[in-house]
Amino acid sequence: MNDTLVLFLPAPSTPWRWLRIADDMVKARGEGFPEGVDPDGPPPVAIAPAESVTLHWAELPDRSAAQSVTAARMLAADASASPIADLHVAVGREDDHAERPIGVVSISQMHHWLAALAANGVDPAMLLPAPMLLPRPEEGYVRADLGGEGVVRGTTSGFADEARLTELVTGGAAPATLGRDELEAAIVAAVASPALDLRQGVFARRRKLALDWALIRRLGWLSVAILVVTLFIGIVSILKYSLAADALEQRADTLARQGLPRGETVNNADRQLDERLSRLRGGGLGFTRTAAAVSSAVRSVPGAELTALAFDANGDVRATISADREAAAADVRSRLVAQGFVVPAATFEAANGRVSGQLKVSPR
After folding, report:
1. Is the separation of the CB atoms in 336 and 346 below 8 Å?
2. When you count CB atoms within 10 A of the terminal residue's CB, does the N or C end of the chain come out lower?
3. DSSP letters along 274-317, please?
4. Looking at the domain assignment, is residue 136 inside a domain?
C-alpha cells in the first residue's frame, strides 16, 4: 500500500491519533489531527473506537448482500437493547471462515464520526472497527494498544479491554499481548484488505463522477472506425449490385442480338427487337390474335362461315362473312364487339339463299 493515512477517531477520553503507512510499513505516527492532509491524495482510513462498536460473528446467507444484511439485522435486534431502527448494521467477510463479522453501531454515532471527519476536510475511504485491526488468533485471545485504548480480539469476538469484561469473556485467561512490529504488520494487512468496513448502506462513500477522457477518446475512435467500416460495406454493396446489373444488362443485350436478323447492324438491340416483333405480329393486337378472335366468333354462330380474311398494316382485319341469314352475320359482329374489338356495321347482300358481307375488325 502506498502512503495511506490512518486516523484513529477520538474516544471521550482520548484525542485524535494517526499513523502513516508507506511501502507496506508504518512510517510515521502522531497525536492530534495531522496537518497537511492532501485533499487530492488517497482518502484516509478511519478507525472507530472499540468501545463504540459491538462485534458479532455468525454464519449468514451468501446469496446476496441484501440477504446477509437482513439476517444480520435480525441477529442484532435479538442481541441489542436499542431499537433496531436506531442501529447501523454492517457485514464483512474474514478470509474463508464460515462465520462472518457483523458490526453494530448507533446511527447517530456514525453521523457524528463522519461529521467530525468532514469538519477536518476528510471523507474516509473506509471506517474500520479498532478490534478488526488485530489478527484473528488460532485460539484464545490477543491484546494490543490502539489509539490510546486497549483492544482485545478473539476468534469470534472483539471488544475494548476492560478488566472485568475481559476476564468475563476470556474466562480468566490472560490475552497474549502483541509486540509493536507484529501489531504494525497486522494494521498494514488489515488496512490493505479490510474484513469489515462500517461504510455500507446509507453510509457508503459516494463516488465522484470523473470523466475518463482516455476511454472517451478510445470510444470516439471506435465509433469512427465503425462508421468507416459501415460506409465501406455500403460502397462495396453498391459496387457489387452495379456490376451485377451491368452483367444482366449485357446478357439481355446478347439475347436481344440473337433475335435480330443476321447481318443487321445493331445500334440499340432492345429497340430494334421491339420493331422486329411489331413487324412480325403486325399492327394493333397483331394478326394472330385478331384472326383467332374472328375465327372463334364465326365458329360460335351456326350457319356462319369465314370466306376471306385480309390483314392491314395498321392492325385492322377485313373478314368476309357468309351466313344463311342476316341475323347470323349480326351475331358474329356482336361476339367480336364483346371481345373488345371495334366492328362498324356493314351491309350484307343476299345471293343464292345466303347473305355475305365484309366486317372491319379493329383493336379498341
Report:
1. no
2. C
3. HHHHHHHH-STT-HHHHHHHHHHHHHTSTTEEEEEEEE-TTS-E
4. yes
According to DSSP, the residues that pair with 323 across neighbouring strands are 304, 355
Q: Tell me how many degrees the CA angle 278-282-286 measures, rounded to the nearest 5.
A: 105
Question: What confidence score (pLDDT) does residue 163 get?
Answer: 83
* Nearest CA-CA partner of 44 in 132, 148, 134, 118: 118
* CB 25, CB 10: distance < 8 Å: no
pLDDT of residue 251: 80
Mean pLDDT of the chain: 88
> Which pLDDT does position 312 carry in this prediction?
80
Angle value at C-alpha 184, between 182 and 187, nearest 5 degrees: 110
Our count of domains for the chain comes to: 3
Give the pLDDT confidence score for residue 315 in this predicted structure: 79
Give the CA radius of gyration of the chain: 53
Q: How many CA atoms lie within 13 A of 288 on its CB side?
A: 5
Nearest CA to 20 out of 33, 8, 35, 3 is that of: 3
Domain span at 357: 284-363
Helix or strand run (H / E) with residue 45: strand 45-48
Would the pTM count as exceeding 0.70?
no
DSSP conformation letters of 189-239: HHHHS-S--S--GGGSPPPPP---HHHHHHHHHHHHHHHHHHHHHHHHHHH
pLDDT of residue 93: 92
pLDDT of residue 279: 63
Contact 7, 45 (CB under 8 A): yes
Q: Where are the alpha helices (DSSP H) in the chain?
A: 65-79, 107-119, 163-170, 180-192, 213-258, 269-281, 287-299, 326-338
Q: 203, 238, 255: which is the final residue of a domain?
A: 203
pLDDT at residue 81 in the model: 84
Locate all alpha helices (DSSP H) within 100-143, ordered by sequence.
107-119
Do 80 and 184 share a domain, yes or no?
Answer: yes
pLDDT under 50: residue ranges of the chain: 1
Q: How far apart are CA 332 and CA 301, in angstroms?
A: 6
Domain stops at, among 148, 175, 203: 203
Q: Judge contact between 358 and 318, C-beta under 8 A.
A: yes
